[in-house]
Design goal:
With 265 residues, the protein is an alpha/beta fold. The chain has a single domain, classed as Alpha-Beta Barrel (TIM Barrel), CATH 3.20.20.70. 46% of the residues lie in helices and 15% in strands. It is built from ten helices and eight strands. It has helices at 8-17, 24-33, 52-61, 74-83, 110-122, 135-144, 154-164, 181-204, 236-245, 247-260, and strands at residues 2-6, 38-42, 66-70, 87-90, 127-131, 148-152, 208-212, 229-234. Strands 1-2-3-4-5-6-7-8 form an eight-stranded parallel β-barrel, surrounded by eight helices. Strand 4 (87-90), helix 5 (110-122) and strand 5 (127-131) form a beta-alpha-beta unit. The longest helix has 24 residues, at 181-204.
Length: 265
């Protein structure tokens, strides 16, 4: 299983003071030297972290593939086409959200996604769709012409955090998941089963399968038993850990968890 390290949050720290520290390019090199199989970045419409010049420099200088997450906004798509990343992952995007919440609605935005895929394919850029883990979304992703899907693991991660961390006692407790423990356990099992079923079905359709959003050092082992998932994209938890351990050790630790887990080939 490959590890894609999302370095957006390095740029978040930089943009907080609008200086060039921490240096996003240094983060790129450290992540790669520490075992990242891929670098993932999100060029948002509001440029809240990664900037155009960052994306250009990262794609130009990275020794590993770069996965560029982008919305289906035509301006962003045109920039992506010119940048020519190794892969583009189409994601939903709202200006007011803190982070991407939920998968791309492949039914509501069918025409826009079809246009985006056709445009990116014209520039020989493979496309992944960041989607919720449902059988219907897998079928539609295949129909639209994507080569890959990235399963949104946010619901799973939120349920796991409400069960097994102190999140429920914090100011960031998730109101919709403030439920009795037995109900949380049931919903967590159901969420994991949805991911497994979606991964299996996507693989049967010939789609490559990745997963990401909210994965961390505590819950990532739950993904290891799903052999169809060949790639995990993880960012916030690695950057958060790096505050205490340094980025090199934070990446290495996540890499060890993925490689050494006995249930994944």
């Amino acid at each position: 299983m490959k590890l894609g390290v999302n370095i957006d949050h390095i740029a978040v720290l930089r943009e907080a003071r609008r200086v060039n520290d921490p240096d996003i390019m240094q983060a790129l090199y450290v992540a790669i030297e520490s075992g990242a199989d891929q670098i993932t970045i999100h060029l948002r419409e509001d440029r809240r972290h990664i900037q155009d010049v960052d994306a250009q420099n990262i794609i130009m200088h990275s020794k590993v593939p770069v996965n560029l997450e982008c919305s289906i906004n035509k301006e962003i798509l045109n920039i992506t086409a010119k940048l020519k990343p190794h892969r583009a992952t189409l994601v939903p995007e709202k200006r007011e959200e803190v982070t991407t919440e939920g998968g791309l609605d492949v039914f509501k935005y069918e025409d826009e996604i079809s246009y985006a895929i056709e445009l990116l394919h014209d520039f020989s850029i493979p496309v992944s769709l960041f989607v919720d883990p449902s059988i219907e979304a897998m079928d539609k992703s295949k129909e639209l012409g994507a080569e890959m899907v990235e399963l949104h693991t946010g619901t799973f991660a939120n349920l796991y955090a409400m069960l097994y961390s102190s999140l429920s006692y914090s100011n960031h407790s998730i109101k919709e998941f403030e439920l009795p423990r037995h109900e949380l356990e049931t919903r967590l099992e159901e969420s994991l089963e949805d991911i497994k079923n979606a991964a299996t079905h996507a693989h049967s359709l010939g789609l490559e399968v990745a997963a990401g959003h909210g994965l961390n050092y505590q819950n990532v082992s739950q993904m290891m038993g799903i052999k169809e998932i060949i790639e995990l994209n993880i960012g916030q938890s690695i950057i958060a850990r790096s505050v205490f351990t340094g980025l090199e050790e934070a990446v290495k630790e996540m890499k060890r968890l993925i490689i050494l887990h006995p249930t994944h080939p």
